[in-house]
Design brief:
Elements (H helix, E strand, L loop, with lengths): L1 E4 L2 E7 L9 E6 L8 H10 L1 H10 L7 E5 L7 E6 L10 H18 L4 E4 L11 H18 L5 E6 L2 H15 L1
Parallel strand pairs: 2-7, 3-5, 3-6, 6-7
Antiparallel strand pairs: 1-2, 4-5
Helix pairs in contact: 3-4, 4-5
This protein binds adenosine-5'-diphosphate.
């Protein structure tokens, strides 16, 4: 699915973020930037050890914030590591923190001159954020950013399974109306 939005385009693809040949991919990292399971593990495995070395030098990242490294052997040029909130029922600032992940990643991409950016579905795996709610926040934040900035102009969500893809497709269709 591909939709024009503001000064750019929002794309949804069903696939592996480590295969995306874009200027930046956004990893669902943990606050220690220590690598882990899920998409984080996949990115470090495919990209090689240089990404973890750069993460160690940065040291850590608070929830809702984003840092940038190189991308090692990945086809992307950079990895942006954003730390999503763990879902604790929704009453602990989770929505604002998740919105901040998308906003800070997009701003960091812009400030580093990136033209294309692909996100994984932040927080909806091990961190347990309900995907319908997470998708609405992601699409809202991406659309708001594209309305006010001219790059990155291609923002892709790389979604790993059909259920997650369908949730983002519904959120993007709702945003269009
Ligand atoms: P979090 O800890 O933020 O919940 P996870 O990595 O557990 O992060 O999951 C986030 C999303 O990333 C989930 O939808 C999961 O299925 C997906 N995912 C896992 N591996 C990949 C991959 N290689 N490419 C894209 N998405 C992936």
């Amino acid at each position: 699915m591909r939709v024009e939005s503001g000064n750019g385009v929002i794309e949804l693809v069903l696939g592996d973020i480590t295969k995306q040949a874009v200027d930046g991919i956004v990893n669902a990292a943990n606050a220690a930037l220590a690598g882990g399971g899920g998409v984080d593990g996949a990115i470090h495995r495919a990209g090689g050890p240089s990404i973890l070395e750069e993460c160690r030098a940065i040291g850590g990242c608070p929830t809702g914030q984003t840092v940038i490294t190189g991308a090692g052997r990945l086809p992307a040029k950079h990895v942006l590591h954003t730390v999503g909130p763990v879902w604790h029922g929704g009453g602990h600032g989770e929505a604002d923190l998740l919105a901040s992940c998308y906003k800070t990643a997009l701003e960091l991409a812009r400030d580093n001159g990136l033209k294309s950016l692909a996100f994984a579905s932040i927080s909806t795996g091990i961190y347990g954020y309900p995907v319908t709610q997470a998708a609405a926040i992601a699409i809202r934040e991406i659309a708001a950013f594209l309305a006010g900035n001219d790059h990155p102009s291609l923002v892709r969500m790389a979604l790993f399974d059909q259920h997650t893809y369908d949730a983002y497709a519904a959120a993007l269709s709702a945003q269009e109306q």
